[in-house]
Amino acid sequence: MRWLSITPTVRATGTIVVVLHGSLRRADTTVLAETVGALLRTHRPTRMEMDVSRLLELEPGTAEAVLAVLGTAAREGTTIVVTHPSPRVRAQLSSAGAEGYLA
């Protein structure tokens, strides 16, 4: 599978959940950053979750770009967490320094 689907939803509590489905490649990180940025500007959420339970593949080198997206949200005052990572995705994100964002 070589595509990425990004599906954002807003819970009644105001929490935004961004579900990633498929494969996250380096080329996709710009779209991910733009999507998260637009959600932050539009909704100004206090909490955002990035659900990676359907993320099948994280291309090498993309974990650092995901960490940058997480850091941007945090600097905007939004609590952001990565939920439901597979052991492989968790290891990749942890090695990039995103351990503090993993739920």
UniProtKB/TrEMBL annotation:
Domain STAS, first and last residues per copy: 14-103
Gene3D superfamilies attached to this UniProt entry: STAS domain
Listed InterPro entries: MlaB-like_STAS (IPR058548), STAS_dom (IPR002645), STAS_dom_sf (IPR036513)
A Pfam match: STAS_2
Name used for this protein in its record: STAS domain-containing protein
Originating organism: Micromonospora siamensis
